[in-house]
Amino acid sequence: MANRFVLNDISYHGSGAIKEIPGEILRRGYKKAFVCSDPDLVKFGVTAKVTDLLDGAGIPWELYSQIKPNPTIKNVQDGVAAFKESGADMIVAIGGGSSMDTAKAIGVIAENPEFADVVSLEGVADTKNHATFTIAVPTTAGTAAEVTINYVITDPERVRKFVCVDVNDIPMVAVVDPEMMASMPAGLTAATGMDALTHAIEGYTTRGAWELSDMFHYKAIQLISSNLRDAYAEAQSGTPGSGREGMALGQYVAGMGFSNVGLGIDHAMAHTLSAHYDTPHGVACAMLLPIAMEFNKPAVAARLAEVAVAMGVDTTGMNEDEAADAAIEAVRQLSADVNIPKACDGLVEGDLDQLATDALNDACYPGNPCEATHEQVVELFRKVMP
Question: What residues does the Fe-containing alcohol dehydrogenase-like C-terminal domain cover (predicted)?
Fold first, then answer.
């Protein structure tokens, strides 16, 4: 069996990396940029860090910022219309997963208009053309949407999120500049950081994991575990430092892996909570992560024991089962240290049946190492009830 791996054509890393953006555009002969960014980033001047560089290089641009935290079908369709009207010939996505996911969908539909309904992109869509040339600039250290071949859109009418997986959606250029993440508040730093850890741990234990993805995921677990607390403290103090830089790299490395091998039940359940209660994705992932690890332990105890070591746990004298439990406890402690809530606001008993159905139908679930019954997923959701 062949194992496929898809990555960006080019990626830039480190403080000041955004200065490479104008050159990438001009060298390729593009004339106008369509900038996708969310309203808060525009309001607080984060988007301007890039658009000022475009201005300085004489590159015209047009802004699209009608993007919700959990982007909807309408956000995408409005964006496609705005892109066509703008006369732009390339896209610059600036933001977290919401902005980048929206930009991905816009770019795919712009080159494959038969998918203009958006919903037909769910799953593995048979697109023929690569998305419009896109440069992705993350402002959070979590989703790694700048390096993945998937994106998530919300369907409000059906109260669900759907995952789109498409090698044609990956941004050709990723610019991972920790200075673009310097304005992240502490809560967002924690949530997106735990999302990145979930990517790494689920990717390390998913059914599709293999040697190349293991290399990325193990290193990502190390980087995130050793840097998230510092990044959180830096966000609280307003003084960026090495923690932020470590998280910028760690989340990208995690994305390099999971994008190619899949995730599991944690993400399937987290998507469901976000769709029903608008729970921030990283928060949902974090509160469910130790629960999902416990559920999967019978199938992946050896892998979880390795996760413990990657997280810095001294497993000397522990057997495999004890080391796996130590990994679960280390995740719980990290979540507590960065003040992740333990329960999902709004979750009620009457919703559990539908939540379980939606989670088992989520595109991330098939990668889970253990099969789950409907009743078992209900019980897993019950563990995060208020």
Answer: 189-384
